[in-house]
Amino acid sequence: MKNNKTIYPILFIISAAHLLNDSLQAVIPAMFPILEKSLNLSFTQLGFIAFTLNMIASVMQPIIGTYTDKKPTPFALPIGLTSSMIGMFALAFAPNFWTILLSVIFIGFGSATFHPEGSRVAYLAAGDRRGLAQSIFQVGGNTGQALAPLITAIVLVPLGQFGAIWFTLVAGLAVIFLIYIAKWYQTKLLSMENQQKFIPKKQNQHISKSIKHALMLLILLVFARSWYQGTISNFYAFYAIDTYDISISQAQIFIFTFLILGAIGTFLGGPLADRFGKKMIIFISLIGPAPLALALPFVNQLVALMMLGIIGLLLMLSFSVTVVYAQELVPGKIGTMSGLIVGLSFGLGAIGAVTLGLLIDYIGLFPTIISASFLPLIGILALKLPTDQKVYEWNN
């Protein structure tokens, strides 16, 4: 008989590991104001650093996910975080732009390895509550990202670039967590009686074409969310410093508010999708913050802070939901779909970082922020996604 029990201890541990993993990755954009001053980097160079980090993570994720769909690899999890630990150590001592790029390659590879297999662990531990399980897993990552502004204010501003050395300890703790998870994961695989859950079901040609169209639309929506999120995460601190005449540490409050409310939104998104439907939550998460995003560049400091919190909360409702939606569109491809959607978020964010960096250098910070404010309006296209019931009918 199929065991549908949700295994919360495993979900909480893999979520904690996700928090540690993504806090490492979030250190990079958090260091941008420091690197810009200490190494005299341009916005274009900062964009390329974000591009390298996120592109390695994004390109490798679906590749690793496809491989592990065929051959799940539990101990890839601690191996990936070991790579991140090496990258953080190198970052603390990197003397120039090129060595920073090399450091972030190691960190990006660690992230790419962690996410597909971490998502599979969440799937295996989910039981019947896939939306909630994916939210518990993803909220760890988004909370880790939200810690980046605090990391900047508390550690990196006083210690500078060398402060990154402390995050080798964070990576080491994550490795310990993931060794435990890998042992559970390996035992789970050995004890599973029905391996067919990892084998995709065959669909007729019409449905396969419909699924492809739905995936393309989902990718477009992830694009809109990722580019706008990247705008705020990577460059809004510079906007706040220039517009409100505040310090680097004070500017981090804006980013922290956006990211920590985003983490809360990530957690709420899964249970809300289980109750009201994934399509509805994906639609609300983009259209909801659209008017606030358009108004954000024109409001005062206090209102901007409140708006960023609301935008972050709404925008990230769909983060875990898009992963589960894609996994249910193509059942049996757990790692591939996780790698595609989460990896795509990183990849699109990487392209966005370079594009936005170039735009800021050529047309200025304020016009770039205004241009990016229109991205959430693309969320109107979520109305064209297949309903949850339709997806269920295709696969049953």
Quick structural summary:
The chain has 396 residues and is mainly alpha-helical. The chain contains 17 helices and no strands.
Features:
396 residues; mainly alpha; Growth Hormone, Chain: A; 17 helices; 0% strand; globular
Describe the fold and architecture.
The chain is an all-alpha fold. The protein has one domain (8-394): Growth Hormone, Chain: A. It is built from 17 helices and no strands.
Summarize the helices and strands and which ones pair or pack.
Blueprint: H1 8-30, H2 32-38, H3 43-70, H4 76-93, H5 97-126, H6 130-146, H7 148-159, H8 167-191, H9 205-244, H10 248-276, H11 278-287, H12 290-295, H13 301-315, H14 319-329, H15 334-363, H16 365-372, H17 388-394
Helix pairs in contact: 1-5, 1-6, 1-7, 1-8, 3-5, 3-15, 4-5, 4-8, 5-6, 5-15, 6-10, 6-14, 7-10, 9-10, 9-15, 9-16, 10-11, 10-13, 11-14, 14-15, 15-16
Number of domains: 1
CATH class: Mainly Alpha
Radius of gyration: 20 Å
- Shape-level CATH architecture: Up-down Bundle
Strand fraction equals: under 5%
N to C succession of SSEs: HHHHHHHHHHHHHHHHH
Helix-and-strand structural type: mainly alpha
Give the rounded overall mean pLDDT.
84
Tell me the name of the CATH homologous superfamily: MFS general substrate transporter like domains
Shape: globular
Number of helices: 17
